[in-house]
Amino acid sequence: MASISPDYGLEALHLKEPESLVQTQVKIRIPKARHPDPVISNLINRYGLKVNILGALLGTNGQEDGWFDLAIEGQAGTIHEALLDLVELDADLWFNTEADDGY
């Protein structure tokens, strides 16, 4: 089961005006079962988000979970929706609440 820490990180995005431009930093654990899926690419292509990979740990053999430290920019509502989709994939999210701010 996916977890979100701190749990108010995702809620803070939901409370912002949906069209407001924001940048957030989030660490994501993607389960090894999703290794063949283009999870990070989907954040860009499906949602039109700007994603900067600050750090990553991903085994090439698909036997390990993938760990990503991402800076994500876009509209608050779109980021919120994209991160909810990651939770549906059983990804765990850890927010750096100090990086959340508007432009």
Structure description:
With 103 residues, the protein is α+β, with helices and mostly antiparallel strands. The chain has a domain at 1-62. Helix content is 27%, strand content 40%. The protein is built from 3 helices and 5 strands. The chain has helices at residues 8-15, 39-45, 76-88; strands spanning 4-5, 21-30, 50-57, 66-75, 92-102. A 5-stranded mixed β-sheet has the order 1-5-2-4-3. Strand 3 and strand 4 (66-75) form a beta hairpin. Helix 1 (8-15) packs antiparallel against helix 3. The longest helix is centred in the last third of the chain and has 13 residues, at 76-88. The N and C termini lie far apart (33 Å). The model is unreliable at 99-103 (pLDDT under 50).
SSE layout:
Elements: E1 4-5, H1 8-15, E2 21-30, H2 39-45, E3 50-57, E4 66-75, H3 76-88, E5 92-102
Parallel strand pairs: 1-5
Antiparallel strand pairs: 2-4, 2-5, 3-4
Helix pairs in contact: 1-3
| Coarse structural class | alpha+beta
Ranges where pLDDT stays below 50 over 5 or more residues in a row are 99-103
Strand content: 35-45%
Mean pLDDT: 82
Shape assignment: elongated
- Our measurement of the CA-to-CA distance between the termini, rounded to an integer number of angstroms, reads 33 Å
Task: Give me some keywords for this one.
103 residues; 3 helices; alpha+beta; 27% helix; five-stranded mixed β-sheet; single chain
